[in-house]
């Protein structure tokens, strides 16, 4: 064996191996640096790596069989007693040069990566944002039509894998024809903007669009379209195709076909569909806007039963209503049947994939199946933020917290000024009690919409968790929400309990319960909040009457929504307030059985917190203290328990003085 290794050395096989390894590494580094920089296919890097690895054994065989001599390449001598021709020191220089070049490329790559991480807006020439279109119609009720045309053009563009397209939610805050194009391009991280104007008079439609290069304000392309309403369906595809051509974006055969085929040829169905999209794009007022969207999409599919995208949107709207506001059989079945039709008519539509994923997620709570669907969505539609967004939400429900944070960041890279997305990202950071990250994302959200009520209420919740309730009240006092705003109502009532100052909350809550037509199924929730403030302010007689009204209203609603954990928990609070402790505990435990932490790691522990509160109110100190200790070490949906909050919350007044509780609240917030 020693003779064999001596022969390897004599024939310079070791030197060739080292030299090849260094040169091969340099080649791979060059490929990894140049291919992305020139926007070449990523497969080229893989091909270089494979060829380099395959060449390694070939180089060793050649080194064994041949010598590099002054007379050229010759077969190696078989005389094992004499050395092969000396290879000189060239190989040493090759190794040194290769190492230096490799190190240089490594740090250059790292520098580029850092620059991209610091300035993610530098995303290349094939990036575009579609600004809100201007409605030139005299009838402002046609605004939905203008918004819908913009939305459909954006949807077509987002399907093109060779483009990076910013979603509507990140652009809707801007004007239709802004002057500060460079600043907007920088904020959105794009090199091109699309502006548009739409005028609808009767059955006549005029659409004007223009593509602008942000850096130079240069108008690269503009086009006007004059169509009758029954011939307007293909405009979105024509615009998207033209933009792809201007940006030299490569279209696959499937993408060309998708852009060429209109979703419907029925003008009335098309208008109804655009009305539905406009309803879904409304901020806040989820119950009303979702109900209006369901009505509009139902009209669209009635007018054109073959309208696959409208069926998919109808399913998604029903699923959202079930998830967010109304867990009735009507919405469950509505989501299922509309989805089945969409899958028959357009199984590969972006809208159908989204509808299927959200039905599995919002209605079925089948997170594993929903995750598979949204992974496909992310691969098929890389410009759409809802893929990583939905995956992030599913990941936190399955307790994969770091993955959830990373996925939310991926979604924000696609849709950086999406307020809802930012607030959900804050939810994950708050669940993990990462207050620095919460502040960072809050700053982004407030930059997008400085006076947004939902954002400021989110900031209030973070301050409450850290015991800064005076600062929280300053923010609450500045807000002027619309009647029926549940997030503001609950934040205001909680802060009143923490501060032990009740007048402002009493006035607001009294006004809310006097308008039952605005509250719908939320009336019982608002009544419980009012009763809580009344009880702690000392008005026990009024509190008892309000608790009774709340219990009566909740008991009427729950049979229609037996899986609505929010209704069950508020019923438990009402019963606790009336002294019916056994029923209060039973309903809190029933809510946990509907959605245990093993199924939903994000919201499940929040239901356990409600049970812990009911236990403390009912005098079950041992169980309550044990539950608090567990929750303080659990990630879950904010506002979650913290030592700072426990020091203020009157629900836990019965535990004060117990050394076990005192130890828990003395820990750092």
Radius of gyration, taken over Cα atoms and rounded to an integer in Å: 32 Å
The assigned CATH architecture of the domain at 127-262 is 3-Layer(aba) Sandwich
Form type? globular
CATH level 3 topology of the domain at 127-262: Rossmann fold
Kindly provide the name of the CATH class of the domain at 127-262. Answer: Alpha Beta
Structural class computed from helices and strand pairing: alpha/beta
Low-confidence stretches: 36-42, 105-124
With helices defined by DSSP (H or I, 4 residues minimum), what is the helix count? 32
CA distance, first residue to last residue: 67 Å
Number of strands: 8
Main beta-sheet annotation: 6 strands, mixed
Helix % is 55-70%
Q: What would you give as the CATH superfamily of the domain at 127-262?
A: ABC-type transport auxiliary lipoprotein component
pLDDT averaged residue by residue: 82
**How much of the sequence is in beta strands?**
5-15%
State the main characteristics.
669 residues, alpha/beta, Rossmann fold, 32 helices, two-stranded antiparallel sheet, 6-stranded mixed sheet, 64% helix, globular
Task: Give an account of the 3D structure.
This protein has 669 residues and is α/β, with parallel strands linked by helices. Among the domains are: 2-118, no CATH class; 127-262, Rossmann fold, CATH 3.40.50. Helix content is 64%, strand content 7%. The chain contains 32 helices and eight strands. It has helices at 2-10, 13-37, 43-65, 90-118, 143-158, 168-171, 181-188, 235-246, 253-260, 267-280, 286-303, 308-324, 329-345, 350-363, 367-380, 386-397, 401-414, 419-431, 435-448, 453-465, 469-478, 486-499, 503-513, 516-519, 523-537, 540-557, 565-577, 581-594, 604-617, 621-631, 643-646, 659-665; strands at residues 66-69, 72-75, 127-130, 134-135, 164-166, 192-201, 204-213, 218-228. Strands 3, 4, 5, 6, 7 and 8 form a six-stranded mixed β-sheet that branches. Strands 1-2 form a two-stranded antiparallel sheet. A hairpin with a 2-residue loop joins β1 (66-69) and β2. α11 packs antiparallel against α12 and α18 (419-431) runs antiparallel to α19 (435-448). The radius of gyration is 32 Å and the shape is globular. The relative contact order is 0.05.
């Amino acid at each position: 064996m020693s003779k064999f290794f001596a022969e390897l050395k004599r024939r310079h096989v070791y030197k060739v191996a080292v030299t090849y390894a260094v040169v091969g590494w340099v080649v791979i580094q060059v490929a990894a640096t140049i291919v992305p920089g020139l926007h070449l296919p990523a497969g080229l890097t893989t091909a270089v790596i494979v060829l380099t690895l395959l060449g390694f054994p070939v180089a060793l065989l050649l080194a064994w069989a041949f010598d590099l001599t002054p007379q050229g390449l010759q077969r190696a001598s078989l005389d094992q007693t004499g050395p092969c021709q000396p290879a000189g020191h060239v190989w040493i220089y090759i190794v040194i040069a290769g190492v230096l070049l490799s190190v240089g490329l490594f740090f250059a790559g790292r520098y580029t990566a850092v620059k991209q991480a610091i300035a993610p807006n530098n995303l290349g020439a094939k990036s575009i944002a579609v600004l809100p279109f201007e409605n030139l119609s005299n009838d402002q009720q046609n605004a939905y039509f203008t918004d819908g045309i913009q939305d459909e053009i954006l949807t077509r563009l987002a399907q093109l894998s060779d483009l990076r397209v910013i979603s509507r939610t990140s652009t809707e805050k801007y004007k239709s024809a802004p002057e500060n194009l460079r600043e907007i391009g920088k904020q959105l991280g794009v090199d091109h903007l699309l502006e548009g104007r739409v005028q609808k008079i009767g059955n006549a439609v005029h659409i004007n669009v223009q593509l602008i290069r942000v850096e130079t304000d240069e108008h690269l392309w503009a086009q006007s379209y004059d169509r009758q309403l029954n011939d307007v369906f293909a405009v979105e595809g024509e615009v998207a195709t033209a933009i792809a051509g201007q940006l030299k974006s490569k279209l696959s055969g499937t993408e060309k076909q998708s852009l060429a085929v209109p979703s419907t040829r029925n003008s009335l169905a098309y208008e109804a569909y655009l009305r539905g999209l406009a309803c879904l794009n409304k901020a806040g007022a989820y119950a009303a806007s979702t109900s209006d969207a369901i009505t509009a999409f139902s009209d669209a599919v009635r007018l054109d039963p073959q309208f696959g995208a409208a069926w998919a949107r109808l399913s998604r709207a029903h699923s959202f209503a079930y998830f967010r506001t109304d867990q009735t059989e009507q919405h469950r079945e509505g989501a299922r049947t509309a989805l089945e039709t969409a899958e028959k008519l357009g199984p590969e539509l972006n809208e159908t994939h989204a509808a299927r994923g959200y039905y599995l997620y919002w209605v079925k709570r089948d997170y594993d199946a929903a995750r598979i669907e949204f992974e496909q969505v992310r691969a098929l539609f890389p410009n759409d933020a809802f893929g990583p967004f939905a995956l992030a939400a599913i990941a936190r429900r399955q307790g994969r917290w770091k993955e959830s944070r990373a996925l939310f960041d991926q979604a924000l890279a696609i849709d950086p000024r999406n307020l809802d997305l930012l607030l959900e990202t804050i939810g994950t950071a708050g669940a993990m009690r990462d207050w620095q990250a919460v502040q960072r994302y809050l700053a982004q959200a407030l930059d997008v919409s400085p006076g947004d009520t939902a954002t400021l209420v989110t900031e209030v919740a973070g301050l409450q968790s850290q015991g800064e309730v005076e600062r929280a009240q300053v923010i609450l006092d500045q807000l002027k929400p619309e009647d029926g705003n549940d997030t503001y109502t609950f934040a205001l009532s909680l802060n009143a309990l923490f501060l032990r100052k009740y007048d402002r909350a009493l006035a607001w809550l009294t006004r809310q319960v006097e308008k039952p037509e605005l509250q719908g199924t939320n009336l019982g929730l608002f009544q419980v909040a009012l009763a809580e403030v009344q009880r702690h302010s000392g008005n026990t007689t009024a509190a008892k009457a309000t608790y009774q009204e709340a219990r009566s209203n909740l008991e009427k609603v729950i049979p229609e929504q037996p899986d609505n954990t929010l209704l069950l928990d508020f019923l438990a609070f009402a019963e606790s307030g009336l002294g019916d402790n056994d029923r209060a505990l039973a309903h809190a435990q029933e809510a946990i059985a509907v959605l245990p932490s093993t199924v939903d790691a994000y919201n499940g522990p929040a239901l356990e917190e409600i049970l812990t509160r009911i236990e403390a109110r009912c005098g079950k100190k041992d169980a309550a203290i044990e539950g608090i200790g567990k929750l303080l070490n659990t990630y879950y949906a904010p506002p979650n328990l913290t030592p700072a909050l426990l020091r203020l919350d009157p629900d836990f007044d019965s535990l004060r003085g117990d050394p076990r509780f005192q130890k828990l609240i003395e820990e750092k917030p």
